[in-house]
């Protein structure tokens, strides 16, 4: 609910595996969230006609090259491992980070590439998130592998585009909660307590009036790499209304971290501008006025318009661009 809009350049990088989770056999892509539309996928030994017609370089130290005669006809979503990695095999529920190249199958044009400065991407590997076919394939892939997929994805106009995706699996996100040294919050805002699994709760509604600009307080200071604009940021969060302290959203309740590309207007302003320059592993409280959340109109954003909001955010991973 925090996303504002979808852009092709970020939707491709951050989406589920293109051909397996987002598409139907007739090419009518249904969007990455529609896992039920997945078509049958081949494993590493079953490439399908489209995969047989292309060549993908296997050197993990260089940007992939994808060679085929355009237009490449894609009649079914297929996938195979190009270069096997030597890391752990992806398991049910893992959140993976990858570096991707996307090629338009109809023209041979590279649409975006991490190696040319596009964002990294990834997803949570769960059958209800990505579809049975993508799940079946991805749970055979070791970390460190390069794989190729053929399929479809919707662009920003809603049109299905036939694509070739090549991705290098960089890592599995772990742990799935903040870990670090205690921060030094001001005590101005409600105290935060953590459940055994790390899920936060706050001690009731705040008092007084909310701030006029977003306030960030560090609750846990991590020791990982520092977040920056353009990162594919993976996080856990819970949000509450300032007005009554009621919870309205939580990634913890959904059982899956949330990811987005930092600094591209895909989330509310209070997030985009205040999750920078934080070590991975940190936990912060963001107190966000309505103007930097969903605006002042009380009818907007399913009742969140006009509301100041409180978030507790755990920074789990920050995958950088190659800029």
Automatic annotation (TrEMBL):
SUPFAM superfamilies: FKBP-like. It is an enzyme of class 5 (isomerase). It catalyses: [protein]-peptidylproline (omega=180) = [protein]-peptidylproline (omega=0). Coiled coil: none annotated. Keywords: Isomerase, Rotamase, Signal. GO terms for molecular function: peptidyl-prolyl cis-trans isomerase activity. Residues 1-21 form the signal peptide. InterPro entries: FKBP2/11 (IPR044609), PPIase_dom_sf (IPR046357), PPIase_FKBP_dom (IPR001179), TAT_signal (IPR006311). Its EC number is 5.2.1.8. Residues 176-214 are annotated as: Disordered. Residues 230-319 form the PPIase FKBP-type domain. PANTHER family: PEPTIDYLPROLYL ISOMERASE. This is peptidylprolyl isomerase. It comes from Brachybacterium aquaticum.
């Amino acid at each position: 609910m925090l996303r504002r809009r979808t852009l092709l350049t970020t939707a491709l990088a951050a989406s589920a595996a293109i051909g397996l989770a987002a598409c139907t056999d007739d090419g009518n892509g249904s969007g990455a969230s529609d896992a039920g539309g997945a078509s049958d996928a081949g494993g590493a030994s079953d490439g399908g006609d489209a995969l047989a017609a292309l060549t993908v370089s296997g050197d993990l130290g260089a940007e992939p090259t994808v060679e085929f005669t355009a237009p490449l006809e894609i009649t079914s979503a297929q996938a195979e491992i190009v270069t096997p990695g030597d890391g752990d095999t992806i398991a049910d529920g893992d959140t993976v980070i990858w570096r991707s190249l996307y090629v338009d199958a109809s023209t041979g044009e590279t649409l975006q590439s991490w190696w040319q400065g596009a964002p990294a991407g990834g997803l949570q590997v769960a059958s209800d998130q990505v579809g049975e076919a993508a799940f079946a394939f991805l749970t055979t892939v070791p970390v460190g592998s390069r794989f190729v997929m053929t399929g479809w994805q919707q662009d920003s106009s809603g049109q299905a585009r036939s694509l070739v995706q090549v991705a290098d699996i960089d890592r599995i996100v772990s742990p799935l909660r903040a870990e670090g040294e205690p921060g030094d919050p001001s005590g101005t805002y409600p105290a935060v307590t953590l459940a055994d699994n790390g899920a936060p709760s706050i001690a009731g509604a705040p008092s007084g009036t909310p701030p006029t600009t977003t306030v960030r307080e560090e609750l846990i200071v991590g020791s990982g790499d520092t977040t920056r604009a353009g990162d594919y940021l993976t996080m856990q969060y819970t949000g509450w209304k300032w007005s009554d302290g009621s919870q309205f959203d939580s990634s913890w309740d959904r059982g899956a971290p949330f990811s987005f590309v930092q600094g591209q207007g895909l989330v509310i302003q209070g997030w985009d501008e205040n999750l920078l320059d934080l070590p991975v592993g940190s936990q912060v409280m963001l107190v966000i006025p309505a103007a930097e959340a969903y605006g002042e109109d009380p009818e907007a954003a399913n009742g969140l318009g006009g509301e100041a909001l409180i978030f507790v955010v755990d920074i789990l991973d920050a995958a950088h661009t190659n800029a």
